[in-house]
Amino acid sequence: MRNQLQSTTTTDVAPRTARKADSPPNSAETRPGILRITHEPAEVARARAWIKARIAAAARPIDAETADDILICAGETITNAVVHSRPRVPGDTITVTMTVHPETVRVEVTDTGDPRGRGPHVRDIAPELESSGRGLRIVQELSAAWGHNGDGDSRTTWFEVGC
Fold it and tell me: The whole model's pTM is what?
């Protein structure tokens, strides 16, 4: 579903569905799938392929437009984790979690955070000539809800797409 959210904060945006974004899974939901990737740019493609396979294997069909929205949002959030976080110790990974709920698909990307302590944020409008800076604006537009949370050791950026 394409959404035209007008949000002023990125820390926790309420979903349009009746289920709260932080509510525990119920028996109608599938178990979350978890993938761990390294901080290498090539891992973004591997994570997208994994998400695409999970969409195809979902217990109920997910239409092509919704699948595209999920893959685009996932690509943006995973790319942000690869680009803006750094492993604190050798072997640190980025964790991608995907859960298919009855009315939404939720993807969470957990990383070691920005070494400067900044959280994800939607930039105002990126100038036309910039090659980056539009990712979270895209996530905001395509998702039913999105947000982030974290502490000094990790950060999770999540989104939900209605289906």
Answer: 0.75
